[in-house]
Amino acid sequence: MKTALLSLGLVVAAAPHDFFVSILTIHHNEANKTLDLTWRMTAHDMEHALSNVAQLKLASTQEHPKADSILNAYFMERLHLFQEDRELRWKWIGKELESENLYCYMQVEGVSTANDLSVSNSLLQDVFAEQDNIVHLEAQGRTLSYHFVLGTPMYTFKLE
User: Which of 92, 97, 114, 100 is nearest to 30 (CA)?
Assistant: First the structure.
């Protein structure tokens, strides 16, 4: 019986986590006219999602030499930002790993206001149907939030 319980404990410990969430914070820097993006997600979920492309091995001595560009290319497929019928393009700033959390940083230049920012976010929903992508828009002293679950259409943040 003790062996069976021990085996069960090992199975539970090795099971994947029960919830899948990413948090994207889009901060409008009025002075610099930029959108500063900080995206937090679970690192091993990203590694799993991109395992058919490359073994990323994030933050290890064997990290794939093109890990940043592979991540950015995937993000470009899964995150779309529009304003005034114009798609906004970001530049990749970098990434860091803290425990199991992967933080990715990007920046969009030339954005004088964050009003009417339209967002579509389907990160990891091609792999995990239960993935919830939370987007926080910080602008004009306010924070507006929206959840993107599988099948959620583009959402437009209204500040005024």
Answer: 114
Q: Which two tokens stand for residue 65?
A: 């030499």
Other Cβ atoms less than 10 A from the Cβ of 107: the count is: 16
Structure confidence at residue 160 (pLDDT): 81
Q: How far is CA 107 from CA 39, 70, 88, in A?
A: 11, 17, 10
Inter-CA distances, 97 with 23, 59, 148, Å: 15, 7, 24
47/108 Cα distance (integer angstroms): 25
With contact defined as beta carbons under 8 Å apart, do 49 and 126 qualify?
Answer: yes
The predicted structure's pLDDT at residue 86: 96
Q: For residues 23 and 36, is the Cβ–Cβ distance under 8 A?
A: no
